[in-house]
Amino acid sequence: MAGGSQYGCSSDSFDGICLAYDGALEWHSLHAPIGLDSVKAEGICKALASETGGVVLPAIPMGVNTIKPFKGFPHSIDISADLASRVAEEFCLQHADEGFKIVILFTGHYPPEHINALQEGVDRARAAVDSTHFEVWADLHLLGDDFKADHAGATETSFQMHFVPGSVKVDALPDRPLTLDGDVLWVMILAKLQKCEVQRNSSWWCPEEWNG
User: Fold this and answer.
1) Of the CATH numbers 3.40.50.800, 3.40.50.10310, 3.40.50.2300, 3.40.50.300, which one belongs to the domain with range 11-206?
2) Cβ proximity of 63 and 25 under 8 Å
3) What is the pTM of this model?
4) What's phi and psi for 181, nearest 5 deg?
5) What are phi and psi of 82, to 5 degrees?
């Protein structure tokens, strides 16, 4: 390893930690940008790196099971689970080759199909390399009991407003109750998410039951 300077930090602050984040490009209702997932993940990763050291790499714009196939909304780029899995595997292997000792794939897009795809790629990387520790994290795992995981709801919108002030158009929201079908906005109760184990077949992914 030549050191951390090529990654925008000094060798002393390099620490061998790589935080790589991804997020879907998808519709986040009328008020928020389509790149919200990556903005949220980038901000959280930079906050983590300020405490732990390490390098925060540029965003990987990808998402499995976006709002496009789920509800048919436009301005959403949906990729296959196979591609996401292969990207995760190659990314881990390449950064292990760069000399990183810890590689964290941090996602701001958390349908279980997406997390499962990342995890499958990480599992293959773990089987191939034992000198680097690989992890998959999602922001919903760090929120705690005081927050609700959502899509374009209060939690995600708050992250966007915090990390990029002025980027949310609250006045664009209609003066009526918001719905998943009409506005692609839902709130998933975090307590229910925490009780669910992400299964390979993602059989429990049914946000209609958690709307509200």
Assistant:
1) 3.40.50.10310
2) yes
3) 0.77
4) -70, -40
5) -60, -45
In the chain, count H helices and then E strands. Answer: 8, 7
Which of 109, 3, 113 is closest to 60 using CA atoms?
Answer: 109
Please report how the helices 81-97 and 112-128 are oriented relative to each other, as an axis angle in degrees rounded to 10. Answer: 40
- 106-145 burial: b if 16+ Cβ within 10 Å, else e: bbbbbbbbbbbbbbbbbbbbbeebeebebebbbbbeebee
Over the stretch 38-89, which tens digit does the pLDDT of each residue have? 999 999 999 999 998 899 999 999 999 887 777 777 788 888 999 999 999 9
In the chain, what are the domain boundaries? 11-206
- What are the residues whose beta carbons fall under 8 Å from the beta carbon of 143, sequence distance 6 or more? 149, 155, 190
**pLDDT tens per residue across span 139-149:** 888 877 777 77
d(CA 187, CA 30): 16
- How far is residue 105 CA from its own chain's centroid? 8
